[in-house]
């Protein structure tokens, strides 16, 4: 599947593609990393997310790199930003550009072991989800919540303002944690997910995470985890023939 | 987003006339065992011409009952897709486009992988048949590219 660039006409789509090539996501993330380190940005744990107060530059770069989302507060002068566990741990542990305190009054950051334990206690599937998230991010894909599509993530090859997402992602655990996420256990789940994603022009991508006997007590064990990528697609004989010969429009999953 | 067909090559015989064999009653009476040593041409032949723009063979003369259920109609003309245009030999059909596994339950991933190993590289589709409804699914190993 080729990327589907956004724009009102062919020229605008070409421009979106050109902009993306000129400033690839790996470069943007690198800029964000530098900026967070220089500003010594610090977040704090807040329930099942991480909040941080950010300067204008960091706010801009977080948006460009597609991490987190702004939070409205009564104090208009102090922009707040909210990160998911996966996003926060990626910035803290993988990119080493964000410190995270226990709460907003604390001044000593948690170490990665402490964060790992906290996040795992709040979200049982966090180890698998983090492995999946970091796997995709390390390939420079943009990873966002897939909640509105009934999926775990949606992935984009660049900023969502410029390109449509290609895949809806489900994270399934394999090996010891088999079925931990509880998805695709029966055929109707397969129908449900493929039709929903098909209806919004995405392919179902399943990431099978196997910890291969490793403990999940420390983030260090992530190195032993493996991931397999699979797509699941519906096939419609008549559609297939039509598509082959006269490039018919894709099935929108109705009927 | 439907899966696409694989294993279908495109024909470049843009000007050849293709003679299509039609099914006839003789086939039903033929021997069910053994292979025919060579093609047998039937008395009633259809005639087609490959249409490059359409990517299909246009059927110019159609004879035989098979056209009741075969072919694709566009603007009043009848066409034959690439699969139908190929001269298919029962004794030597070539690799199929895909293999179909009929399933009533949800095969596990291990079962699907075992099936795929038996397919020897030919794509596999899982066919789910329940209460008269038929659905087809492909489960494909992929490797997402590393982006710039």
TrEMBL record, chain A:
<dbReference type="GO" id="GO:0000213">
    <property type="term" value="F:tRNA-intron lyase activity"/>
</dbReference>
<protein>
    <recommendedName>
        <fullName>tRNA-intron lyase</fullName>
        <ecNumber>4.6.1.16</ecNumber>
    </recommendedName>
</protein>
<dbReference type="InterPro" id="IPR006677">
    <property type="entry name" value="tRNA_intron_Endonuc_cat-like"/>
</dbReference>
<dbReference type="Pfam" id="PF02778">
    <property type="entry name" value="tRNA_int_endo_N"/>
</dbReference>
<keyword id="KW-0255">Endonuclease</keyword>
<keyword id="KW-0540">Nuclease</keyword>
<dbReference type="InterPro" id="IPR006678">
    <property type="entry name" value="tRNA_intron_Endonuc_N"/>
</dbReference>
<comment type="similarity">
    <text>Belongs to the tRNA-intron endonuclease family.</text>
</comment>
<feature type="domain" description="tRNA intron endonuclease N-terminal">
    <location>
        <begin position="43"/>
        <end position="108"/>
    </location>
</feature>
<dbReference type="GO" id="GO:0000379">
    <property type="term" value="P:tRNA-type intron splice site recognition and cleavage"/>
</dbReference>
<dbReference type="GO" id="GO:0005737">
    <property type="term" value="C:cytoplasm"/>
</dbReference>
<dbReference type="InterPro" id="IPR006676">
    <property type="entry name" value="tRNA_splic"/>
</dbReference>
<keyword id="KW-0378">Hydrolase</keyword>
<dbReference type="InterPro" id="IPR011856">
    <property type="entry name" value="tRNA_endonuc-like_dom_sf"/>
</dbReference>
<keyword id="KW-0456">Lyase</keyword>
<dbReference type="GO" id="GO:0003676">
    <property type="term" value="F:nucleic acid binding"/>
</dbReference>
<dbReference type="GO" id="GO:0000214">
    <property type="term" value="C:tRNA-intron endonuclease complex"/>
</dbReference>
<dbReference type="InterPro" id="IPR036167">
    <property type="entry name" value="tRNA_intron_Endo_cat-like_sf"/>
</dbReference>
<feature type="domain" description="tRNA intron endonuclease catalytic">
    <location>
        <begin position="130"/>
        <end position="214"/>
    </location>
</feature>
<dbReference type="Pfam" id="PF01974">
    <property type="entry name" value="tRNA_int_endo"/>
</dbReference>
Automatic annotation (TrEMBL), chain B:
<dbReference type="GO" id="GO:0000214">
    <property type="term" value="C:tRNA-intron endonuclease complex"/>
</dbReference>
<protein>
    <recommendedName>
        <fullName>tRNA-splicing endonuclease subunit Sen54 N-terminal domain-containing protein</fullName>
    </recommendedName>
</protein>
<dbReference type="InterPro" id="IPR024337">
    <property type="entry name" value="tRNA_splic_suSen54"/>
</dbReference>
<dbReference type="GO" id="GO:0000379">
    <property type="term" value="P:tRNA-type intron splice site recognition and cleavage"/>
</dbReference>
<feature type="compositionally biased region" description="Acidic residues">
    <location>
        <begin position="12"/>
        <end position="29"/>
    </location>
</feature>
<feature type="region of interest" description="Disordered">
    <location>
        <begin position="1"/>
        <end position="40"/>
    </location>
</feature>
